[in-house]
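This week, study the protein below.
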Amino acid sequence: TSLHNKGLLVNSILSEIDSRINYLPNKKIESIYFGGGTPSLLSEKETFLILEKIYKLYHVSKDVEITLECNPDDLTDEKLKELKRLEVNRLSIGLQSFDDEELIWMNRAHTAKESESSVKRAQDRGFENITIDLIYGSKFSHLANWKKTLDKAIALDVKHISSYNLTIEEKTKLGHDFKLKKEVAIDDEKSSELFLEMINRLEKNNFIHYEISNFGKEGFFSLHNSNYWKGEHYLGLGPSAHSFDGESRQWNVSNNNNYIKHISEKKESYFEKEILTEKERFNEYVLTSLRTIWGIDLNYLSANFNTE
């Protein structure tokens, strides 16, 4: 049934692309991002069908950035060949950590060794534009340990690193353990120390700290995410996906079966929508801009918002 469901899900995404052909009128598509969940579970044919439909209905830039999120254990030689054929040109690999104990604690299926070898395998297959995810702030994050992790990441010669402070979500096992005091969070002082160490170490190694949690070498900033932060319009497809057209924001239902059902019944109920007030748009612009090295453009403010 899961294969059957996957087929249904892909068909629903194809239908959604059809129904939203006018969402980004006269806009060139500069980036396509397969992310959230595990898009690497899609077969070559399924990924191809989605890309084919986007190319057919939209004007796609000739140097489009196509990113696929994946786990180290997904990147077999066969999978990498497949992604090359699909012209995916950027990989986002969820390494999280180089500490086996921490990976088990995080419930990850891969080992630290697999993390390193997956990056090298992808590079050998000609993927130059690779970003990795790292998490800090767990009970395993001591300064000495974190320095080793950063040095390993630098030695892998990836072009981009996204790194996030561990957040505890209520409805997870970890959240539950925190409630029962089985786990303790590290304090903000320690987290800040790790954050500053990361900035210092990565900047010394030619990474540019261009957004709070993102570091890229020259020419390798994430085009896709930069467009979010710069307030560009975007179209999100599939369960849980968000879209923004400058005036309103909408988000699709997160449950796969509900998404499939509503799409097949041609109901608009597969998403919720909010029209943003001028104040909300202003606040969003200020908040997202302050996360980046580009900061706030005062001319943009005066051109797009009333003076108050």
About this structure: The chain has a mean pLDDT of 93. The first helix runs from residue 2 to 19.
